[in-house]
């Protein structure tokens, strides 16, 4: 008789897989992908290292899955922000501010997703999600052109420029080697966010809304 996996076994496997994912993200959140070692992940998840490889073909596959899940949450937050505001310009401001603010509140997480040197499989996912952000901005820009609050422009190219500008402007501040904010300068992050938003909106409109 062929072996048939029981529902209980499937549930146990699913739970183990979820623990592996959660513990991997916890490691990445603390020190980036570089610090997420399989032995540590296994110990935190309460499984053998071999169990991890039964769920994921390789370390790179595990990291790519973590990247997909984490970045999709951020893309969803930007999409949500693009629904708030009376005009397209306001909605774009909200989305840009959301992107930058969330990144600066969780700098190690954001560094891992935006700029940390990673394996090729994870880099492929990074490119996919940069396109996802750009697609959201592209649709918003097209809406703004239709509304008449944005000048006519190549929405696809402009959206790519937005993603590049905001990502590049955050690389330095998010870097683990960046000097910590000195006491009394806690508002630096707010200034950075507003500078990014101002720059991007000026690029879209030619003025600050």
From TrEMBL:
Does Mitochondrion count among this protein's keywords? no
Which regions of the protein are recorded as binding DNA? 37-56
Which of UniProt's keywords are assigned here? DNA-binding
What region holds the HTH tetR-type domain?
A: 14-74
InterPro entries in the cross-refs: Homeodomain-like_sf, HTH-type_TetR-like_transc_reg, HTH_TetR, KstR2_TetR_C, Tet_transcr_reg_TetR-rel_C_sf
PANTHER family given for it?
Answer: HTH-TYPE TRANSCRIPTIONAL REGULATOR PKSA, HTH-TYPE TRANSCRIPTIONAL REGULATOR RUTR
According to UniProt, the name of this protein is: TetR/AcrR family transcriptional regulator
Species this chain originates from: Marinobacter daepoensis
Output the lineage of the source organism.
Bacteria, Pseudomonadati, Pseudomonadota, Gammaproteobacteria, Pseudomonadales
């Amino acid at each position: 008789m062929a072996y048939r996996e029981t529902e209980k076994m499937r549930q146990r496997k699913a739970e183990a897989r979820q623990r592996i994912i959660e513990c991997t993200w916890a490691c990445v959140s603390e020190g980036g992908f570089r610090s997420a070692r399989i032995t540590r992940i296994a110990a935190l998840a309460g499984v053998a290292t071999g169990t991890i490889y039964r769920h994921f073909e390789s370390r790179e596959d595990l990291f790519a899955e973590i990247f997909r899940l984490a970045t999709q949450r951020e893309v969803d937050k930007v999409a949500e922000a693009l629904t708030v505001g009376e005009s397209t310009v306001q909605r774009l401001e909200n989305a840009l501010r959301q992107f930058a603010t969330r990144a600066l509140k969780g700098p190690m997480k954001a560094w891992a997703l935006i700029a940390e040197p990673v394996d090729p499989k994870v880099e492929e996912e990074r490119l996919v999600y940069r396109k996802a952000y750009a697609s959201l901005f592209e649709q918003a820009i097209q809406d703004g052109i239709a509304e008449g609050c944005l000048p006519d422009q190549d929405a696809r190219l402009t959206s790519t420029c937005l993603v590049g500008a905001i990502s590049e402007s955050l690389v330095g501040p998010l870097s683990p080697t960046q000097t910590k904010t000195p006491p009394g300068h806690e508002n630096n992050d707010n200034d950075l966010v507003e500078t990014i938003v101002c720059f991007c909106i000026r690029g879209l409109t030619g003025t600050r809304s």
